[in-house]
Design brief:
two-stranded antiparallel ribbon
Amino acid sequence: MCEVNSCKFNKEGTRCGAPKIHVAPHKGRAESSDETDCKTYEHV
C-alpha cells in the first residue's frame, strides 16, 4: 500500500508501484514501527 499522494510510486488509489521497498530505522536499531522510515519515497 501507498497512502502518500505525493509519492511517485502511488498508483491506482493506494497501490504501491515501486519495484522494491526500502525501510530503515531512524537511528540505530528500531524497536517499533514508529521508529522507522520508508526510504522508497520519491516526490512526484
